[in-house]
């Protein structure tokens, strides 16, 4: 038998003649809809955003399809109908007629509604439901921001938030952006709240407003708030401490306490480091583990009176050394290029050459480690006073000029002194030692990369950046929709990992070629259901249906997700 695909309808040639085989794709959509239903997504969206005046689809239906699209295969808005076309309407939770109503205009109107003032209560109610239904641990919240870049001018936009230039975390200062703030739990990095800010908003100004929303959402003040060094301003820390909250953050390099201790280390002060945590290398098991040490030799309190926990990581020490060496090589390469340009154009003077060299060193933070000297040599040239072909007895005069050359040397003593600070970072907290030891404070902060991984997922698998939407309000709506998709993604991952732990299941064979993984991701789980479909065989008006046949592994995954395999019946 030979099958020739024609969309989802395949013309089949059999010994009895021609027939049609209709393929009804189901894929992982029932899983996504199951989690959306557990979140009470449709009811909350319907009550907060209402029902559009035109069209068959409600905002809840449209956004449900959009969330599924973002998680599985992000497509531009104008291709949403094309993406949904081969999928069975029932798998999307729609009737055949409703599925035909999916188009870019319908999705765009729902995005506009999602960015309206009505949506604020939507996210609040959804978060409350998620916390309750999935029993999330809210005793600790991790916060981080990222920038989402946009292509286009967006000139004269007075929308709030405003797409504009700002400090780009994507290293694209040439592009305008929005700032996306995210709060996640410490048990599975599940998003509980978010905010979209104007592109020029700085992190240090975000925290107090964010904390107010979290206090209202969680109904408690005693949760531990974890964020990066931009939290460590006097006003922010005093605000948290003032209402009885708790925090863990890292002191920035600009703080006097950090500068003092690093200066002491550079000067050769004897410091008693004590190992208090060893973490095996998960990626490279043969490599040595990451060893963490602490000391009591540095300043024990910040200027505000908060506790300091000094840490040194062996892995970070290696990375710091590599980063410094990389910066040195880049600086030396630029200085070599500069050396080839001197004595011509604007680089004919010692002052201009020195200024250019200093700019290079400052840009790459190598001023302390590279010594650049501009040497001058007098060049004497003779010049005939009479024009034309010179004669033997013509008068001549000497012309003196300076020729410069650049000498670059590494300051080995400064580099040796700086190496003593490699891997060192100070954590600060208002948690008392009886509640959290130094080791526990470090473990709390070490969970911070998980919220950063959510941001990485935000920009890779969910493909939210860069954005090519014309209307700022609609672009913000897309970020809100991606947040919803991120929440569903996190809940699926958390559910299956908790089930594995509860059942004592160490790994699942869901990697390519059936390889095992101890940390299954949502993407890999859903990929196992990509080809799930049911078939309808029609020959001369005689139709035969072939129902879905799940594998043993697929049934196991559904049970781990707290789903009955009959969901796919």
Please outline what is shown here:
This protein is of the alpha+beta class. The protein has helices spanning 29-38, 41-49, 59-72, 80-84, 89-92, 96-100, 104-114, 119-133, 207-218, 234-242, 256-266, 314-341, 350-363, 412-419, 438-446, 448-459, 472-503, 522-527, 552-560; strands at 2-6, 9-14, 17-25, 140-150, 176-185, 191-198, 224-226, 246-250, 274-279, 290-295, 307-313, 370-384, 396-410, 424-429, 533-539, 542-546. A nine-stranded mixed beta sheet has the order 6-5-4-7-8-14-11-10-9, with helices on both faces.
Structural class: alpha+beta
Residue share in β-strands: 15-25%
Please state how the strands of the largest beta sheet are arranged side by side: 6-5-4-7-8-14-11-10-9
Helical residue percent band = 25-40%
Number of strands: 16
Oligomer: single chain
Low-confidence stretches: 1-7
Describe the structure.
This protein has 569 residues and is an alpha+beta fold. The chain folds into three domains: 2-117 and 480-554, no CATH class; 135-254 and 274-301 and 428-470, Transposase Inhibitor Protein From Tn5, Chain A, domain 1 (Alpha-Beta Complex), CATH 3.90.350; 255-273 and 302-427, no CATH class. It has 19 helices and 16 strands. The protein has helices at residues 29-38, 41-49, 59-72, 80-84, 89-92, 96-100, 104-114, 119-133, 207-218, 234-242, 256-266, 314-341, 350-363, 412-419, 438-446, 448-459, 472-503, 522-527, 552-560; strands spanning 2-6, 9-14, 17-25, 140-150, 176-185, 191-198, 224-226, 246-250, 274-279, 290-295, 307-313, 370-384, 396-410, 424-429, 533-539, 542-546. It has a nine-stranded mixed beta sheet, with helices on both faces. A five-stranded antiparallel beta sheet has the order 1-2-3-15-16, with no helix packed on it. A hairpin with a 2-residue loop joins strand 15 and strand 16. Helix 3 (59-72) crosses helix 7.
């Amino acid at each position: 038998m030979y099958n020739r695909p024609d969309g989802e309808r395949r013309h089949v040639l059999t010994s009895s003649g021609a027939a049609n085989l209709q393929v009804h794709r189901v894929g992982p959509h029932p899983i996504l809809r199951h989690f959306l239903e557990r979140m009470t997504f449709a009811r909350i969206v319907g009550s907060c955003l209402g029902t559009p005046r035109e069209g068959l689809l409600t905002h809840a239906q449209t956004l449900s399809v959009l969330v599924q699209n973002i998680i599985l295969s992000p497509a531009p808005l104008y291709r949403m109908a094309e993406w949904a076309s081969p999928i069975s309407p029932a798998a999307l939770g729609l009737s055949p007629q409703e599925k035909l109503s999916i188009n870019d205009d319908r999705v765009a109107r729902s995005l506009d509604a999602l960015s309206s003032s009505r949506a604020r209560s939507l996210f609040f109610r959804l978060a409350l439901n998620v916390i309750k239904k999935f029993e999330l641990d809210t005793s600790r919240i991790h916060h981080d921001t990222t920038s989402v870049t946009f292509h286009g001018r967006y000139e004269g936009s007075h929308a709030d938030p405003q797409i504009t230039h700002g400090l780009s975390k994507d290293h694209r200062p040439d592009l305008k952006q929005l700032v996306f703030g995210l709060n996640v739990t410490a048990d599975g990095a599940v998003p509980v709240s978010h905010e979209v800010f104007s592109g020029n908003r700085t992190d240090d100004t975000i925290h107090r407003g964010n904390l107010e929303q979290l206090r209202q959402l969680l109904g408690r003040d005693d949760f531990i708030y974890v964020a990066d060094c931009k939290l460590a301003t006097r006003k922010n820390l005093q605000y948290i401490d003032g209402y009885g909250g708790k925090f863990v953050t890292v002191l920035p390099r600009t703080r006097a306490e950090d500068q003092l201790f690093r200066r002491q280390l550079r000067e050769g002060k004897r410091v008693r480091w004590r190992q208090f945590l060893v973490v095996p290398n998960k990626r490279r098991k043969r490599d040595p583990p990451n060893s963490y040490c602490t000391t009591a030799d540095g300043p024990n309190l910040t200027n505000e009176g908060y506790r300091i926990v000094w840490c040194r990581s062996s892995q970070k020490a290696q990375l710091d050394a590599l980063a410094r060496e990389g910066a040195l090589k880049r600086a030396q390469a630029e200085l070599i290029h500069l050396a080839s340009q001197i004595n011509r154009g604007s680089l004919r003077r010692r002052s201009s050459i020195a200024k250019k060299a200093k700019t290079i060193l400052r840009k790459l933070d190598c001023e302390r480690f590279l010594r650049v000297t501009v040497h001058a040599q007098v060049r004497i040239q003779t010049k005939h006073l009479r024009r034309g072909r010179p004669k033997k007895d013509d008068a001549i005069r000497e012309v003196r000029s300076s020729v410069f050359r650049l000498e670059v040397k590494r300051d080995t003593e400064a580099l040796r002194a700086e190496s003593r600070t490699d891997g060192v970072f100070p954590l600060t907290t208002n948690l008392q030692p009886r509640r959290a030891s130094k080791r526990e404070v470090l473990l709390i902060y070490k969970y911070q990369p998980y919220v950063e991984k959510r941001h990485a997922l935000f920009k890779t698998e969910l493909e939210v950046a860069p954005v090519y939407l014309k209307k700022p309000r609609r672009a913000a709506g897309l970020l809100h929709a991606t947040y919803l998709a991120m929440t569903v993604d996190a809940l699926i991952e958390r559910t299956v990992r908790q089930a594995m732990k509860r059942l004592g299941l160490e790994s699942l064979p869901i990697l390519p070629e059936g390889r095992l993984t101890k940390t299954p991701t949502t993407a890999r789980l859903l990929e196992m259901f990509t080809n799930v479909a049911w078939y309808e065989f029609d020959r001369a008006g005689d139709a035969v249906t072939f129902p879905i046949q799940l594998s043993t592994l697929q049934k196991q995954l559904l049970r781990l997700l707290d789903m009955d395999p009959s969901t796919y019946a």
